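Sample A.
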Amino acid sequence: MVTIGNIQLPDFPLLLAPMEDVSDPPFRAVCKANGADLMYTEFISSEGLIRDAAKSVQKLDIFEYERPIGIQLFGSDVETMGECARIATRAMPDLIDINYGCPVKNVACRGAGAALLQDIPKMVRMTEAVIKATHLPVTVKTRLGWDDNTKNIGDVAERLQDIGIKALTIHGRTRVQMYKGDADWTLIGRIKENSRIQIPIFGNGDIDSPEKALEYKNRYGVDGVMIGRASIGHPWIFNEIKHFVQTGQHLPPPTVADRVAVCRQHLDFSIRWKGEILGLFEMRRHYANYFKGLHDFKPYRMRLVTTDTYSEVSAILDEIQETYIVEFA
């Protein structure tokens, strides 16, 4: 069993990565139903939350069936992050996570996210401010370092553990790498080998198959893995990994009927949470992923992303199932 403060997770838990414009409640719902052990909200801007910006406040929405769930925060000002943590705590998540890993320009170039890897003392002060502002366990997600010359994750792990974080997730790339090239888990493994490190260490980056999850578990000794892009359109990956780790066998791949059913569940929740117009619009980014690999799917995708009523989308999903069910039966 893996423990984060007072949160108990199964051995080798699978975490859903916080992904902007992806890991909202509808997406989290289908991932939870398919085996995700711990999930996080989309990352929330501390400045937006302080200003009571509608988009930031809406990201605080969490539901009982999602537990355990963490709210992830990012920002560049120490005091603001402390106040933001107090606001997030009132939403009653199970933990607060700090994003020190986001590499995108409009975050890192404003002194937030991965930018803090260039100022470890400030990272420490900011983390202390968040810990003091909440009674909840505080965790951190970060990267190996800013670039190849400053892979300071070893120092970061020790210093953040010493001030009280309860778990650390490490993405195996630097900020300069963004999402390019292969993730390097070597340093993640060294953190686990460090006898000073007693908190759970979760690895992140390039986990896209059950085989890779088990290989990295055995090779690097991580307490669990965080899965991001590989879960988009394929929430079954969590149960697939669990089954493979336990048995060495693969679950059957999802059928077309499975894909349609989960896509429809995702769509229904999206509409309940956001309303029909926005719910339909924001689902458009997911269709191609749910039906990846189906031959001649483009005409269906074009219809799905241009249709503006639920009944029409539902009818298209029925048509997709009828068209492909024989081929993929």
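Sample B.
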Amino acid sequence: MMNLEGLRLFALDASHALGDQVARQLPLGLCRHEEREFEDGEHKTRPLESVRGKDVYVIHSLHGEPGNSANDKLVRLLFFIAALKDASAARVTAVVPYLAYARKDRRSKARDPVNSRYMAQLFEALGTDRVLTLDVHNPAAYQNSFRIPAEHLEARHLFATHLAPSLGEGDVVVVSPDAGGVKRADAFRQTLTRKLGRPVGAAFIEKYRSSGVVSGGAVVGEVAGRTAILIDDLISSGTTLARAALACKALGATRVLAAATHGVFAGEAGEVLAGPALDELVVTDSIAPLRLPPRLLESKVKVIETAPLFAEAIRRMHLGGSLVELMEG
């Protein structure tokens, strides 16, 4: 086993299940910490083990859930990072499987905020040395927002490994549900092509959004007689994915599968995605699918583990290895 002696791994309570899985993969034990709640809604979080001179990683996914908003989780993570720095940690890396506010990365209207940049400033102000996340909406905007190293993992290898055995020998096409996701879809298409050992087609769906209203739906590319795989970084209301699945089926796709890294599943997403056009949906455990009805999890939605990916990334970061090689492998 490689020497991980100087590595310390924490997972805040809301992400303890994922943190425990990552720790088992390394293998290490999670370090002990305290999270204390006060009657007025304030809290404190502190390490219960020495981190002096250590390379510290803190796992905490910043999605909102009942009784614990994204804002609550963000403040808790930032304060804990500051406490670790005050306790003389040599380096602190925030491992954030789902990074809140990353979608708001530009001004689309006059005087709009650029929340992704503000997030970066918060992490930097409290002494965070690095941030590691998974499939942000816009990797270039994410990296440009930070002045500290901002590392970015991708779930495409996990999706390709999961989906490949069910694809048989028939024709396959990877479909982006909008033009903005074409690069992400093409990266997945190349990964899947290598996994299958045969060509995989490409297509995208025209989508226009104005004042919250989505229109369009024309498919650019050949999907008839093929298994169509929709690929996206995030599912919120599910309407974009449902529209894309219907469009592919209407043009003769034999099956429609979908893979999206982060399953937010807001509002009526469960009902929207339950229709017959979508045959299977794969998401990662970056966000626990708390809002989905159990019947949908049993019949259509598959959740795949990210712990092996994060564990290997942490191992490489601690030992000075390459994350580029991890993503290209």
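B remarks: The first helix runs from residue 16 to 25. The two ends are 21 Å apart (CA to CA).
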